[in-house]
Structure formats: structure tokens, C-alpha cells
Amino acid sequence: AAHMGLFALCATRVFVGLGEGLAPSSATNVLARVIPEGERARAVTAVFGGLDVGSALGLTLCGPLIFYFGWQWVFYLFAVLGLLWCLAWPLVKPDTREPGEVKPATKAPKAPTNVPWGKFLRSAPVWAVIVAHFCYNWGYYTLLAWLPSYFEMALGLNVEKSSLLTLIPYIAMTLMTPFVGPVADGLVAKGWSVTNVRKLSQGISFAGPALCMLAMSILTPAVPGTGNTPLLVAIMSVAFALGAWARAGLYCNHQDLSPKYAAALLGLTNTAGALPGVLGVTAAGLLLDATGSWSYALFYPTIACQVFGLVIYSIFASSVRQGW
User: Which of 51, 118, 195, 254 could form a disulfide with 319 if both were Cys (CB 3.0 to 4.6 A apart)?
Assistant: First the structure.
């Protein structure tokens, strides 16, 4: 497609996006059908944590592939791996496991017929997840997009070092992921209400990064290369690591509210969560051009979104099964 022109390249990218957009809801639908509530956080963190592992491995492989074989081989390799997984996936048969292989939910939800979108949009707990998804992704997407530029323009690192440092978010979240699910499910097993566990987990993923962004705004040097680079990189890593707790928060909440419509709910909130990829990244660039300040362009808007999401989710979120 790259040799056929810009239109063909953009068209293929659109089709890739359409295909990828189905994956989170499909995975959520499977989890809602076969995983009981007491094991939900571990299952969700394991599945969605794979995104971080894949991103880290993919970025690590891209450099050598391009250097030795050319940029086209990045697409060839991942396309072949994707096709192989498509062939292998039907063999897993997640809905027909043998007894004892996985402890299923108490009652498998029936396949939805007419999705009650109107009831979704009149539900305060659903709006809590929508707002949380938007606010969480505002920080996640804008930080990911502007991280290389921040390392180069604010910390004075060269492009080569910045490219290696871009692995930090994925590595940090990968290292935190094994702790998130067991701790969240462990609290449920100890008698905590599922709602309180979801609020605690999501609260950590909001409050922790917000505090880290506040520290970043204070410590970022006015003159590039004059700040405490190791400390700033460490704080950024902690922010992403704490963000992994959202996997036991909002990412579990769709299945809590309605296993039957969990896939549709995730599709709804994920649509809102995709908007910061455009709005947040663009706004950060405009603010950086207008102010010349990383605090006003990146850190303060992220803090505002995280705090707003924390307040709304803490007040309105619920894991009580809805009567849809």
C-alpha cells in the first residue's frame, strides 16, 4: 500500500483499526462468559496486560528488523504472526472447556439480541465508566505520544536514547500487572465489596499518575539537559506502573454491570476512550506551541483529567449487576 500512494496507505490503516477495534470487546465477551467474578481481575489484567508485553517486544524487534531487512519486514512479520494466531485461536474453544479446566461463571449469559443503548446512556454507573475511560486514556495516550519529544526537548536526550526510553511505559506496566489482579481478587475474597475494590483500583490508577505528573511539572528543568534525568524517568515509570491498576478497575466494570452486554459496554466506553488519542495529543501540541511549557501542555491537563475521573468514578461507579 505504501507504494500505491497515500490514499491506499490510509485505507489500509483504517481497515487495521476496524479489525483491532473488535478485539477488546471480543476478549471481554469471552471473559464475561467463562470467568467468575472472584477471578475477574486476574483474568482481565492477564489478557489486557498482554498488550504491554506485545508493545514492548514489538518495539524491541522493529529496530533490528528495519536495520537488517528493511522496514517492510516489520509488517510482514507481524502479519504472519497475526495469521498464525487466527488459525490457532479456534482450537482454544474458550466457550467449551472441560470441567475443572476453568471455573465458569455461575450462569452463562445469553447472547444479546437488541442492545439497550438507551438504558446504557441513562445509567449513572455506565457514565462513570465512560468518563473514567476518557480521563484515563487522556493521560495514557498523550504521555505515550509526547514522551519521545519530552525526553529530547526537555531532558536534552538524543533521539537514539529517547527511542530506547519509550519502552519504559510498557515495561513499567508489565512489571506491575502480575500484582494487580491477585491483590484485587484477594480483597474480594476477604469480603470487600466488588464495587469498593473497583473504586480502589481505579483510584490508584488516577491518583498515583496525577501525583507523579505534579512532581514532573515541578522537576522538569527550564533549560534542557539541566534536570535530574534519572529521577524524572523514574517518576514517569512509576506513573505508568500505577496506571496498570485500571485493569482491575474500569476494565473489569463492564463485566460486573452486565456479563450479557459486557462487549457492547466496552465498545461504548472504548469509543470515548479513543477520543483523547486525537483530542489530547492535538491539544498538547497546541498548548506547547502557545506556552512553551511542558507543565501547561502535558502535565496540568493530565492532572485535571485524572482528578476529574477520580471524583466521578468514586461517586457514581458501581459493580452491582444491572437489570438489562
Answer: 195
3-state secondary structure of 52: helix
Distance between CA 153 and CA 147 in Å, rounded?
10
Of 36-40, 62-66, 253-257, minimum mean pLDDT range: 62-66
Q: Which of 313, 320, 307 is nearest to 138 (CA)?
A: 307
Tens of pLDDT, residue by residue over 174-197, are 999 999 999 999 999 999 999 999
CA dihedral 259, 263, 266, 268 (to 10 degrees): -120
pTM (2 d.p.): 0.86
The answer for residues whose C-beta is within 8 angstroms of residue 24's C-beta and 6 or more apart is 48, 266, 267, 270
Q: To 10 degrees, the CA torsion angle through 218, 239, 168, 9?
A: -100
Q: How many CB atoms lie under 10 A from the CB of residue 6?
A: 9
Cα separation values, 194 from 34, 227, 263, 301, Å: 18, 43, 20, 30
CA angle 259, 261, 264 (to 5 degrees): 135
Residue for grid cell 498488550: 51
pLDDT for 203 equals 97
Question: Is the per-residue pLDDT at 109 higher than 60?
Answer: no
More confident position, 96 or 35: 35
pLDDT tier, 63 (very low <50, low <70, confident <90, very high otherwise): confident
Q: How far, in Å, CA of 205 to CA of 302, rounded?
A: 12
Q: Which residues of 95-121 are buried (b: 16+ CB within 10 A; e: fewer)?
A: eeeeeeeeeebeeeeeeeeebeeeebe
Rg, C-alpha atoms of the chain: 21
